[in-house]
Amino acid sequence: MDFSIIIDGLFTALQPINLMWLVIGAILGTIVGILPGLGPATGIAVLIPLTFGMEPISALILMAAIYYGALFGGSRSSILINTPGDGSSIAATFDGYPMTKKGQAGQAMSIAAIASLIGGVMAIFGFIFLAIPLAQFALNFGPAEYVMLFIFALSAVVALSMGNIAKGFLTMFLGLGISTIGVDLQSGVHRFTLDVPHLTDGIDFIVIIIGIYALGEVLYNMFNINKAKKPDQNIGSKWFTKEQWKKSLAPILRSGPIGFFLGILPGSGGTISSLLAYSTQKQIAKNKEEYGKGAVEGLVAPESANSSAAVGSMIPMLTMAIPGSGATAVMLGALIMIGIQPGPLLFENSPDLVWTLINSMFIGNIILVVINIAMVGMLVKVLHTPPKVLYPLVLVLSFLGAYTLGYSTVDFYILILAGVLGLLLRVLNYPVVPLILALIVGNDMEQNFMRATVIYDGPVSILFASPITIGLAVLTILSLSYPLIIKLLGRRKKKDHPMTM
Amino acid sequence: MWKPVLSSLPFLLLVACSSSASSEGTEFPTERMELIAPASPGGGWDMTARSVHRAMTNDDIITQDFNVENMPGGGGEVGWQYLQRQDAHSTSVNSSLLLTNNLLGQSDLSYEDFTPIAMLLTEWIAWATASNADVQDADELISQLQDDPESLIFGLSPALGSGYHLSTSQIAMLSGVEPRDLQVLVYDSGGEAMNALLGGHIDILVNSMSVLSSQYEAGEIDIHAVTSPERLEMFPDVPTWQELGVDIEFPHWRGVMGPPDMTEEEIAQYDEWFGEMAESDQWQRDLESNMFFDFYMDSEETKAFLEEQDALFNDIIESVGLMP
After folding, report:
1. Would the CB atoms of A408 and B73 count as touching at under 8 Å?
2. What's the rounded Cα separation, in Å, for the pair A120 and A72?
3. Which member of B42, B192, B201 has the closest CB to residue A45?
């Protein structure tokens, strides 16, 4: 590897003008990430006209900074008000919000930012050394491989609903059902669209997420809004403790590569990688009963993963001109508009551009940590806002967010229905995550299954299509039988216990 | 670069008409104008709308307040239903979906419900195979399909009945292959389908030259034949289908239309704007960087062109058995 070109890239990234765009992008990205519904794709799209007059490299730096900045910001609202900014930050609600309830909001936000930084930096190193071979490897993922990947992701998450796995399956199937709404690509048939054109493209899962989490939270608390359990004044220190750091390091380092690799696969993206990182972390943890009640490991694992997935998802976009997520699709379009042609020749034709971008991502991640930790003090003030003021604000933001996703009022009704659904699930104690994940992967899984049936003879040959499908099938069986194994082990321990007494 | 032969003559006439129209004191435009991109930011429709906006405002062709509005959903349906209720200050980008949505029974809106304003640009469609598949030329593919139409798997996007699908069906028909027998996998986007081609999951990718070009230049894929009437300047080695004896010319066009019942003065005003824009440097530069091809037609020509396309699509859809 030619190092002089890397150093040149560093100096270009450090030019005042580029540094300025980097900071602007980081701040904008954080804001976009915090607001529910407003994701990096929208943030970048709105800025496209601004990039027309810019140097191509500055434009690329700005757009990339918004993208990974949004992932830093996304966890803020998850942690503070149990409202994920977008799909990738759902997992941050699982243990982030309980930490807030325990009076550790400040610690949760600062350690989440550090986790994002480390995940991002790991992915940048992955980018430097592995970009091209990994993009090539990702091509092996055809219809059969994707079907098995999605089945594995679903089974891993369902298996998480410990104790009530039946309930987990139930909400998963509900999610899969909702995902069939819209036109079926392979046959062109419109399914359950009720002649509403907006439903042709299906229901945007982010509307459902905002409904279930934000609206559901407001509805749940509405019953006792006047009792106003004064929110815990003690927000904890801004900085996490040494003990928390010790617990976090291993999960962060483990989750980074998971996120990075899943990020490279087109279509899977931040949401799946953060959920899988969470489930992996929980499955190998010893203190499972603490998860969901404010375990710091459960917060840092998904944060590290989604941040490195963001960097990973730029690889197919830059090296193959194949966008793997909404945000990278918008970036690809904008890059072509300003005269950069991503593709296999980009690394040969404009190495200066690529290395400047990589250096700027490195600097950008550090800037983002500073911004996010500096904002902790300001953000926790949200917790001092009385519910009577806070909840109406959450409602307004939710509806705004839902509207900006599809520019359609149909989404308002879906949002309200999802809110009621979220309330019901919560009151009846059904797990939400299987539903959300099923909703996200359902359509892709079905379409890939339909494609696979054209390519392969039958279900069995799909299962044995390649070493990848076999490997994923084994993982699926392992994760589904996991609760069973635990139970058996637990029983034996209990049996053992009296004997040793 | 391909251009309709007669584009300049009617354009001059119309400029003359419009100047006489404005001298009669017809006031248009009087308020903020909008160009609807009936899709999310980032796609082809959005790019077209934004390029129009940039060319129109950069050179001060339109001095009125002028915005691009994204209204995604239903393959254009949401934006076009909205357009139907607006006045002449609103226009929308369109494409062959305007015709096929109706023909496929997916929409009640027809092209006749709107006022044709202009054709803007086109992409040309080609068949590509992975270079390690060692396919010599399109003839080889066609004769393999003639022997066994199910032996090759096509990948295309974003829907059955799209330009990529219809052009492939027409090529099959013209070569004596039953289009219903073709094995077609539909992908959400051209990028996903390209992934499948490079990974060896499909045999033939049908897409625009703009999507194919970067992998072609890198030597990863071979492009076999293109639906343009003449070889494209940028791809001198890619033969046309016509050279190979398949009589097809299939543009993948995008244009602009307005709401129903526009006055002649308003149409003339748009003709003047778009005529000027089509000649502008900014527009030509944007076409080139996106690998779009100039396809400018004024409102009269556009109207005739749409009728012709509608009849053609109707025939193909009927023979592919996609009729509702």
Report:
1. yes
2. 10
3. B42
Chain B nearest C-alpha distance from A44 (Å): 9
Which residues of chain A are within 8 Å of residue B98 when distances are taken between CB atoms? none
CB contact A53 to B (< 8 Å) = no
pLDDT at residue B324 in the model? 66
In this structure, which amino acid lies at residue A249? Answer: L
Judged by CB atoms closer than 8 Å, whether chains meet at A139 and B214 is answered as: no
Is 90 exceeded by the pLDDT of residue B284?
A: yes
A200–B199 C-beta distance less than 8 A: no
Cβ-based contacts of B39 with chain A (< 8 Å): none
Which residue in A145, A201, A453 has the most chain B C-beta atoms within 10 A of its own C-beta, making it the best mutation to test that interface?
A: A201
Query: pLDDT tens digits for B205-239?
Result: 999 998 898 899 989 999 999 999 999 999 999 99
What is the model's pTM? 0.82
Q: Is B42 close to A332, i.e. CB distance below 8 A? A: yes
- As for the ipTM of the complex, it is 0.79
Number of domains making up chain A: 1
The Cα B155–Cα A159 span in angstroms is 35
Interface test with A, best of B35, B40, B56 (most A CBs within 10 A): B40
Which residues of chain A are under the pLDDT cut of 70? Answer: 1-2, 37, 162-163, 224-236, 267-268, 324, 491-501
- The radius of gyration of chain B's CA atoms, rounded to the nearest angstrom, is 20
pLDDT of residue B16: 44
Q: Are A308 and A248 in contact (CB under 8 A)?
A: no
DSSP A36: T
Q: How far is CA B187 from the centre of its chain?
A: 18
Q: Please count the residues of chain B.
A: 324
Chain A hits for B40, CB-CB cut-off 8 Å, are 45
Q: Do domains B8-122+250-320 and B125-226 have the same CATH topology?
A: yes
Cβ-Cβ contacts under 8 Å for A414 (sequence gap 6 or more):
A203, A207, A208, A211, A402
Q: What pLDDT does residue B123 have?
A: 94
| CATH fold label, B125-226 | D-Maltodextrin-Binding Protein; domain 2 (3.40.190)
Q: Looking at the complex, does the CB of residue B181 fall below 8 Å from at least one CB of chain A?
A: no
Q: Nearest-CA distance from A73 to chain B in Å?
A: 22
Does any CB of chain A come closer than 8 Å to the CB of residue B189?
Answer: yes
CB pairs under 8 A between A and B: 140
pLDDT at B63 > cutoff 80: yes
Measured between beta carbons, which residues in chain A are less than 8 angstroms from residue B183? 454
Q: What homologous superfamily is domain B8-122+250-320 in, according to CATH?
A: Bordetella uptake gene, domain 1 (3.40.190.150)
Element (H, E) at B80: helix B77-84
**From B190, which residue of chain A is nearest by alpha-carbon distance?**
A322
- In this structure, the strands spanning B251-258 and B33-37 are unpaired
Quote the CA–CA distance of A302 and A92 in Å, as a whole number: 7
Boundaries of every domain in chain B: 8-122+250-320, 125-226
Contact B27, B265 (CB under 8 A): no
**In this prediction, what percent of chain B has a pLDDT beyond 70?**
91
Q: What is the pLDDT of residue A5?
A: 82
The residue range of the domain holding A357 is 3-500
At A229, give phi and psi (nearest 5°): -55, 105
